[in-house]
């Protein structure tokens, strides 16, 4: 059966700056497929036609008032009121016309618009979404979690060690499993949305409800197996790179527009593969060859600064204040660069490491984790790594027997997820306050995780997911955390 929410995009064509978008009167799968192949400039219109762009806009806008404030043109001329309830939105924009119920609603307050979007989303999903309804047969904690998705910090009680309370859910991408190995799973920074991407040349977005996880949108990038895809810091754009291609893609989710970036001014690299999104937004840190890192601005598509270390880069991680970046080299040395002055301010050897493979920093500024080819993951004090030439690990985690290829801290900095893509079921969760490994994950009578190549937690740690070699994104509910 044809996937009517998939947008196919050839890699050899570019969008023009002034594309006129027309909505087809009826949907004919074969005819639409021919049109897609003929003209990539109709990508946005196809996305709008099937309603997925509108659904995504509603999910993202409805997730938090602050994001709505950023994404919508708000102030009317000469409007003195500055409160959230008084700021008004122009409803004549083509992505908001479907929310208007009469000619008198040419403008609308933000508060009213957000409520209208919630109502429209519930209607499009056949009623109130599952996370907004109470089910007496489900655990009370799960219902409470899935009802509360606002943008606030979840101050939970201390996470117990030993056994992590979790519930296995339907795969995050069960509505559209990948036909090849998944390389990316990432939760949206503010909306109840998760993204997957992989070698089947697709990027997909799903609503996370823990029960059906319906698909929102899929885009197909022809002859472009996705090595890595990441949300921009504001959550409006997806950046996708491939394996052996200098070109990369930018997917504007609000406009439904996919833009190939064929060249970057000032970048002398044969390919763009590894990258990190800078915490301050608007920039990417590209991993080059021979120890180079390049700071790229998304606005101008040019390299504004480059840094170099000895040996090849195997991973980067930003400090909690975004001022420093930790760079792990394959030679087993960690470099600390100041992003503002572009100077190396510290350098140390990862204890006992022969070849480095990965690195991650906790959001609270307390921990730094370094992975190695032997499978050992060293956990350091981030402060010691900034100031000491010879920091000693707080803990050497030795539960992985093959290369530690993925490291991710949860948002509360209480859990470190570690994984090796070289072996089935090689995923562990580390309880950071006690520096001990949870004994009950993964535990199953049959294989479920398989080989994990990417790990992520939802914005407030309510969910944990991973991307595996079977094309699935297993999803788990962490019962300790009350918020998404």
From TrEMBL:
WD repeats: 313-347
Alphabetical keyword list: Nucleus, Phosphoprotein, Repeat, rRNA processing, WD repeat
Ranges annotated as biased composition (Acidic residues): 133-143
One Gene Ontology CC term in the entry: small-subunit processome
A Pfam short name: WD40
Region ranges (Disordered): 1-38, 118-143
Cell compartments where the protein resides: Nucleus, Nucleolus
GO biological process: rRNA processing
InterPro entries attached to this UniProt entry: Utp18, WD40/YVTN_repeat-like_dom_sf, WD40_repeat_dom_sf, WD40_rpt
Family of this protein: Belongs to the WD repeat UTP18 family.
Biological function: Part of the small subunit (SSU) processome, first precursor of the small eukaryotic ribosomal subunit. During the assembly of the SSU processome in the nucleolus, many ribosome biogenesis factors, an RNA chaperone and ribosomal proteins associate with the nascent pre-rRNA and work in concert to generate RNA folding, modifications, rearrangements and cleavage as well as targeted degradation of pre-ribosomal RNA by the RNA exosome. Involved in nucleolar processing of pre-18S ribosomal RNA.
Name of the protein this chain belongs to: U3 small nucleolar RNA-associated protein 18 homolog
Species in which this protein is naturally found: Seriola lalandi dorsalis
């Amino acid at each position: 059966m044809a996937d009517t929410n998939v947008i196919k995009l050839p890699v050899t064509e570019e969008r023009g700056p002034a594309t006129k978008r027309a909505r087809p009167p009826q949907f004919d799968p074969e005819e639409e497929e021919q049109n897609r192949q003929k003209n990539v400039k109709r990508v946005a219109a196809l996305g709008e036609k099937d309603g997925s762009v509108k659904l995504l806009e509603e999910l993202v806008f409805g997730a938090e008032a602050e994001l709505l404030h950023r994404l919508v043109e708000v102030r009317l001329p000469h409007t003195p009121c500055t409160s959230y309830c008084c700021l008004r939105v122009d409803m004549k924009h083509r992505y908001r016309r479907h929310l208007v119920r009469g000619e008198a609603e040419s403008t609308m307050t933000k508060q009213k618009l957000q409520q209208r979007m919630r109502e429209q989303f519930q209607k499009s999903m056949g009623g109130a979404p599952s996370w907004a309804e109470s089910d007496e047969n489900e655990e009370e904690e799960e219902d409470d979690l899935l009802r509360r998705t606002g943008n606030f910090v979840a101050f939970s009680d201390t996470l117990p060690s030993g056994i992590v309370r979790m519930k296995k859910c339907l795969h995050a991408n069960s509505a559209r499993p990948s036909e090849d190995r998944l390389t990316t799973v990432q939760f949206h920074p503010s909306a109840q949305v998760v993204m997957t991407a992989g070698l089947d040349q697709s990027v997909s977005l799903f609503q996370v409800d823990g029960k059906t996880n319906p698909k929102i949108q899929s885009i197909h990038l022809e002859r472009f197996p996705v090595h890595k895809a990441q949300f921009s810091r504001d959550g409006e754009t997806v950046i996708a790179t491939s394996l052996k291609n200098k070109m990369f893609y930018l997917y504007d989710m609000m406009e439904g527009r996919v833009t190939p970036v064929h060249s970057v001014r000032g970048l002398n690299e044969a390919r763009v593969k590894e990258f990190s999104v800078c915490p301050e937004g608007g920039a990417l840190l590209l991993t080059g060859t021979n120890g180079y890192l390049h700071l790229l601005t998304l606005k101008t598509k040019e390299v504004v600064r480059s840094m170099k270390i000895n040996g090849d880069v195997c991973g980067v991680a930003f400090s909690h204040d975004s001022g420093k970046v930790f760079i792990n080299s394959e030679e087993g040395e960690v470099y600390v660069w100041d992003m503002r002055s572009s100077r190396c301010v510290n350098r140390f050897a990862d204890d006992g490491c022969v070849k480095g493979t990965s690195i991650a920093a906790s959001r609270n500024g307390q921990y730094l984790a370094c992975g190695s080819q032997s499978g050992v993951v060293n956990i350091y004090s981030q402060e010691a790594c900034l100031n000491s030439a010879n920091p000693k690990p707080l803990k050497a985690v030795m539960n992985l027997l093959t290369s530690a290829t993925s490291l991710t801290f949860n948002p509360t900095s209480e859990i470190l997820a570690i994984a090796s893509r070289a072996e089935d079921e090689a995923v562990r969760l580390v309880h950071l306050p006690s520096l001990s490994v949870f004994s009950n994950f993964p535990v199953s009578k049959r294989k479920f995780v398989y080989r994990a190549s990417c790990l992520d937690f939802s914005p407030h740690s309510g969910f944990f997911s991973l991307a595996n070699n079977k094309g699935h994104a297993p999803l788990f509910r962490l019962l300790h955390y009350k918020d998404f």
